[in-house]
Amino acid sequence: MSGFEIGIYTLADIGPDPLTGHTVSAKQRLDDIIKAAKLADEAGLDVFGVGEHHRLDYAVSSPAVVLAAIARETNQIKLTSATSVLSTLDPVRLFEDFATLDLLSNGRAEILAGRGAFIESFPLFGYSTNDYDELFTEHMELLLQLNQQDTVTWSGKYRSSLKDAEISPRPLEQLPLWIGVGGTPESAIRAGKFGVGMALAILGGDPNRFKPLVDLYRQAGIEAGHSPQSLKVGVTGHTYIAETTQQAKDEFYPYYSNYWHYVNRQRGFGTRMSKVDFEQMASPETALFVGSPEQIVEKVLHQHELFGHTRFLAQVDIGGLPFEKVAQNIELLATKVVPQIHKALR
């Protein structure tokens, strides 16, 4: 097998179920996330990711804490943030939290760092959005050093200097680090220069438009002296699976439309997605993973031809989707999609 990994991730959004109007509590959302992780682990999926937000309509502000709870309930599955908002996190605190998670989980921790889709963490932690890019770059440089050295001497612009600082605890081995990339060439090049994995958030449209980013990432990585083998690409995307593609579209549309309605409202515009728009977004040649297991397999394999990626993470719990539907998606992903992908890539 080519070592292709398949998993799921959650951003822990809390929204009303559009069919019943019921909204789960933050406590229920967290309980469901832990249950989903257990199901994913038992089903043999490879990775479980948890995102970070600092808003009342999301249940997780500390991925490391939630992943530590999951670590004690699971055995094999890798545990990653998806993403850690590195611009406004202290890299030392982030690294020590995930090193602790690594020890608790027997070496399963990973960090996927990103700049985040929202900016509420900037005022919350005393940072300026004017420093958006520079903060991320500086914090990433420090994070890489923390991962490589037990004792760190470092100085930068936005954080107090470190002199022979002991960074404790140490993970079992160096933590795998990834950068989440939404669509800008600069982000792809940065991930390549740092020599860390690149996780592409592909939420729809034609996947071909992401190919240049993958090429830029690999080129920048090789030019910076990193081995091609170390330059890993992952794809993350919204996913809904049912026995047939029509069933998947019919069941998912109310939830997907609902999801974009409240996400867009959070950003200041609240247009609703029409059924026609959704049909277009879910068509066979697009990147939205909605359909029968065969349709999902086809899309993942098509993207693998384009990107040569080694990891696919599905977001299966958005828009107020009830837990039993999330559980069905995990089961279909593990029993119908994974075997076909592994067979095709063998």
Provide a brief overview of the structure:
With 346 residues, the protein is an alpha/beta fold. It is 44% helix and 17% strand.
Q: Please report the total strand number as a whole number.
A: 12
* Overall average pLDDT: 96
CATH architecture type: Alpha-Beta Barrel
Question: Which outline best applies?
Answer: globular
Strand order of the largest sheet: 1-2-3-5-8-9-10-12
Q: Remind me, CATH topology?
A: TIM Barrel
The named CATH superfamily: Luciferase-like domain
Which blocks of ≥5 consecutive residues have pLDDT under 50? Answer: none
Name of the top-level CATH class: Alpha Beta
Distance between the termini: 5 Å
Count of all domains:
1
Helix content: 40-55%
Task: Count the DSSP helices.
Answer: 11
What structural class is derived from the secondary structure elements? alpha/beta
* SSE pattern: EHEHEEHEHHEEEHEHEHHEHEH
Work out the strand percent.
15-25%
**Biggest sheet: strands, sense, closure?**
8 strands, parallel, barrel
Instruction: Report Rg.
Output: 19 Å
What can you tell me about this protein's structure?
- The protein has one domain (5-345): TIM Barrel.
- The protein contains eleven helices and twelve strands.
- By secondary structure, it is of the alpha/beta class.
- The longest helix is centred in the last third of the chain and has 23 residues, at 323-345.
- It has helices spanning 26-42, 63-71, 91-104, 121-124, 132-148, 185-194, 211-223, 245-266, 275-281, 293-307, 323-345, and strands spanning 5-10, 47-50, 78-81, 84-85, 109-114, 151-154, 162-166, 177-181, 197-201, 233-241, 289-291, 311-315.
- Helix 1 (26-42) packs parallel to helix 11 (323-345), helix 2 (63-71) runs parallel beside helix 3 (91-104) and helix 3 (91-104) packs across helix 5.
